[in-house]
Amino acid sequence: MEFITVNPQAKPAVALVSLNRPKELNALNLQLMSELRDAIQALDANPEVRAIVITGNEKAFAAGADIKQMAGKNTIDMLLADQFATWEAIRRCKKPLIAAVSGFALGGGCELAMTCDMIVASETAQFGQPEIKIGVIPGAGGTQRLTRAIGKAKAMELVLTGRFISAAEADRLGLVTRVVPVELCLSEALSLAAKVAEMSPLAVRLAKEAVNQTYENHLNDGLHFERKNFYMLFASDDQKEGMAAFIEKRKPQFTGR
Ligand code: CO8
User: What is the predicted ipTM?
Assistant: First the structure.
């Protein structure tokens, strides 16, 4: 594993997966996501593990999908790469996933946190779906899960403007389970995981399934719709311009083409 580290017994029956691409603010490139999928699947199959915490570092949980890796892609490249199969596999984890978020959780980073069952945020956490600023839209569930978590009025604002929200605002809006000082974030997430891990694993699994069932069927349609629109934008000049502008550290000039 190059971009993640795994501790299967960070606490009794609790595994810790740390995203480890600090120079790029844990930008989620294909390899990192494959490693994360493999780790989650192995932990899901490991009977010694009953709950899993995913974390980043103090500066970033993850600043999104890797823009440099996506910038030159077209719609067909994206469709054939089928990166969302990896995300689907993570989503299918039967054990509780808890995100411990400090710093940036943006774009795919926010989507990864929302794919988890609970989010423990530190006071420094910032959440956002800034894809609109680089000429695309959320692709890994942001339009669906954020809307369900915080409601249409707020989600629409965040998705259409790319504004980041603080941990305090995320707490008020119901996006996160709790907010704690940065130095306590990981230990709080591990303790929460340990508490869940004391329960009957079977009951926990079925409770997770049942809570997810509140929107799971509709969510599938929504994810599919979002994905198609995300892919479609890779046929646009604005996606090329938006991502090139990010890489070249300048303001994009969008033309609507
Ligand atoms: N992709 C690639 N590289 C990144 C990313 C990213 N998402 N975010 C940061 N980096 C890199 C920077 O390019 C920089 O690299 P270098 O040192 O080589 O120039 C390094 O990380 C440090 O970043 P900054 O210098 O920009 O750090 P700042 O503290 O000034 O700014 C920010 C931090 C505000 C987080 C800024 O880096 C930023 O805006 N990042 C991009 C955020 C973003 O737009 N995220 C959404 C990406 S698109 C997406 O996630 C779509 C998901 C769809 C599904 C995914 C499956 C296909």
Answer: 0.98
Spell out the residues 6+ positions from residue 250 whose beta carbon is closer than 8 angstroms to its own: none
- Choose the catalytic residue: 13, 56, 107, 111: 111
Where in the chain are the domains? 4-202
Amino acid at 2: E
Q: Catalytic residue at 131?
A: yes
Out of 21, 25, 73, mutate this one to test ligand 1's pocket (max ligand atoms within 8 Å of CB): namely 25
Of 146, 153, 49, which is closest to residue 106 (Cα–Cα)?
Answer: 146
Residue 55 CA, distance from chain mean position: 11
Query: Does residue 112 sit in helix, strand or coil?
Result: helix
Please indicate whether residue 64 is annotated as part of the active site: no
Distance CA 218, CA 154 (A): 20
Per-residue pLDDT of the chain (257 residues; tens, 9 = 90+): 999 999 999 999 999 999 999 999 999 999 999 999 999 999 999 999 999 999 999 999 999 999 999 999 999 999 999 999 999 999 999 999 999 999 999 999 999 999 999 999 999 999 999 999 999 999 999 999 999 999 999 999 999 999 999 999 999 999 999 999 999 999 999 999 999 999 999 999 999 999 998 888 889 899 999 999 999 999 999 999 999 999 999 999 999 99
Alpha-carbon span 46 to 128, nearest angstrom: 33
Q: Catalytic site residue 174?
A: no
Q: Strand 126-128 and strand 104-106: pairing?
A: parallel
Q: How many residues does the chain have?
A: 257
Just give the CATH number of 4-202: 3.90.226.10
Angle at alpha carbon of residue 71, lines to 17 and 31, rounded to 5°: 25
